[in-house]
Automatic annotation (TrEMBL):
Organism of derivation: Belliella pelovolcani
Binding site for substrate: F155, L156, K157, E158, K210, F255, I256, Y257, P258, G259, G263, K327
InterPro entries linked: 6-PGluconate_DH-like_C_sf, NAD(P)-bd_dom_sf, UDP-Glc/GDP-Man, UDP-Glc/GDP-Man_DH_C, UDP-Glc/GDP-Man_DH_C_sf, UDP-Glc/GDP-Man_DH_dimer, UDP-Glc/GDP-Man_DH_N, UDPglc_DH_bac
This protein's name: UDP-glucose 6-dehydrogenase
List of residues binding NAD(+): D30, K35, T86, T121, E158, K269, R334
Pathway per the UniProt entry: Nucleotide-sugar biosynthesis; UDP-alpha-D-glucuronate biosynthesis; UDP-alpha-D-glucuronate from UDP-alpha-D-glucose: step 1/1
Length: 438
């Protein structure tokens, strides 16, 4: 079986490599020539645990190929996945220009029946837009080649993408064509040896499922951040409350960790996009508007605590920041809370020394530029700093030497944005610990 994956980013590269890993012949396509050349030479464009190994193995075997030539790639492919970006437009709605450009190119270059499956996160009605774009391109060359459109949203998490793809909780497929359904079933068979994981549905429902899933997860996080902020005011401990409610299986233990707000390339943009979809249909998604408002405010909570401790004017002070990426195990800086925190510290006159095990290159290149200095390790970041901020909970930060840190920092003060440290233990060692609702 041969397939093509168009867009070789977090989703496209992981999906392509994982399909190849189970024996499917995969061609990954991207317009970014540098990325494609790099991949051919074993250079990964992103950091994702376990990815490099399977990319290299499957590239060496010939099952995984990389190209910039979409027309060539789709010849003989039973499925073409669209996995390009859908960034927020000015008004918050998902910008479909990359998706529709790919659909147009498929229509212009296909030579046989093909299933065009959208893996990018796209709003309801996109399936129809993709179908229309392919049809228009076929009409232009007076062709009536048959094709099918499907929606196959992706649910992988960055930092655990390979594992999520190889062992999916569910595979959602929106489809309205029997032949396409059979092809998708065959394609995903290797991922469900432990039981049927595919949920077939109509295309609009599949498209909506993706947004509803992310919106629900974002809601859990904002809800918990709201509760944590209240815990702080009333003298309750958000960690205890989290355990107390999470033990109810109806609530569950996952995605109820308070922190410095959710970031990344998905939750912020997808919550915005579904709110916008509601507006387009004259419906106000009030819960999700609040989810977004709470999250925007939560990104400022740590600096608010810093100012309460040190005063509004932070000029002349230096802060050490541990963790820059939006979550651990990724180099992705998109919408990382660290960006907001660093901007705010600098606006208040402070200097920032940052350290991240993987994301410093990305931070330097794209987002934070020269606004901060980068440390060579976690301890180096603390030399002569006035306090430490834990922003992203990488494993290597979990059990530091408090004795060493106490000597490096000017003050034994820590702002723990992910509640990974034990307040009581630190207090006994003479530290002042600020957490989120603890
Ligand atoms: N990142 C995630 O964890 C994740 C998870 C699930 C779903 N999604 C969704 O998947 C989509 C892709 O996200 P991503 O994070 O992988 O994006 P990304 O920015 O990492 O990758 C997109 C790739 O598409 C390429 N591209 C753009 N136009 C192209 C074209 N015409 N032909 C070929 N390639 C083209 C870009 O060069 C880029 O390499 C988005 O809709 C996103 O919401 C992302
Ligand atoms: O209890 C929690 C869990 C997460 N987060 C934050 O939420 C953000 C998103 O984390 P996570 O969901 O683990 O990573 P993503 O890679 O953004 O994955 C989400 O977005 C993807 C893109 O749509 C989906 O495919 C995934 O299912 C969905 O989890 C990060 O900033 C986390 O720090 C919290 O603050 N508290």
């Amino acid at each position: 079986m041969k397939i093509t994956v168009i867009g070789t980013g977090y989703v496209g590269l992981v999906s392509g490599a994982c399909f190849a890993e189970v024996g499917i012949n995969v061609v990954c396509v991207d317009v970014d020539q540098k990325k494609i050349e790099g991949l051919k030479n074993g250079i990964m464009p992103i950091y994702e645990p376990g990815l490099e190994e399977i990319v290299k193995r499957n590239y060496a075997s010939g099952r995984l190929q990389f190209t910039t030539d979409l027309g060539d790639a789709i010849q003989g492919s039973e499925v073409a996945f669209i996995a390009v970006g859908t960034p927020p437009g000015e008004d918050g709605s998902a910008d479909l220009k990359y998706v529709l450009a790919v659909a147009d190119e498929i229509g212009a270059k296909m030579s046989d029946y093909i299933v065009v499956a959208t893996k990018s996160t796209v709003p309801v009605t996109t399936g129809e837009k993709v179908r229309a774009a392919i049809k228009t391109a076929l009409d232009k060359r007076a062709s009536d080649l048959p094709f099918a459109v499907a929606s196959n949203p992706e649910f992988l998490k960055e930092g655990a993408a390979v594992e999520d793809f190889m062992k999916p909780d569910r595979i959602v497929i929106g489809v309205d064509d029997e032949r396409a359904e059979a092809i998708m079933k065959r394609l995903y068979k290797p991922f469900q040896l432990n039981g049927d994981r595919i949920i077939f549905m109509d295309i609009p429902s599949a498209e909506m499922t993706k947004y509803a899933a992310n919106a629900m997860l974002a809601t859990k996080i904002s809800f918990m951040n709201d509760i944590a902020n209240l815990c702080e005011l009333v003298g309750a401990n958000a960690n205890m409350v989290r355990k107390g409610i999470g033990s109810d299986p109806r609530i569950g233990t996952k995605f109820i960790y308070p922190g410095v707000g959710y970031g990344g390339s998905c939750f912020p943009k997808d919550v915005k996009a579904i709110i916008k979809t509601g507006k387009q249909y004259g419906y106000e998604l009030k819960v999700l508007q609040s989810v977004e408002d709470v999250n925007d405010a939560q990104k400022h909570v740590l600096v608010k605590k810093i100012k309460q401790h040190f005063g509004e004017d932070l000029s002349g002070m230096t802060f050490a920041i541990w963790g820059l990426s939006f979550k651990p195990n990724t180099d992705d800086m998109r919408e990382a809370p660290a960006i907001v925190i660093i901007d705010e510290l600098i606006a208040a006159g402070a200097k920032v020394k940052g350290y991240d095990p993987i994301a410093m290159k990305e931070a330097q290149h794209i987002y934070i530029g020269d606004k901060i200095t980068y440390a060579k390790d976690a301890y180096d970041a603390c030399v002569d700093a006035d306090a430490l901020l834990l922003v992203t909970e990488w494993s290597e930060f979990r059990i530091p030497s408090w004795e060493a840190l106490g000597k490096l920092l000017n003050n034994k003060v820590i702002f723990d944005g992910r509640n990974i440290y034990d307040k009581k233990y630190l207090q006994d060692l003479g530290w002042i610990h600020y957490g989120i609702g603890v």
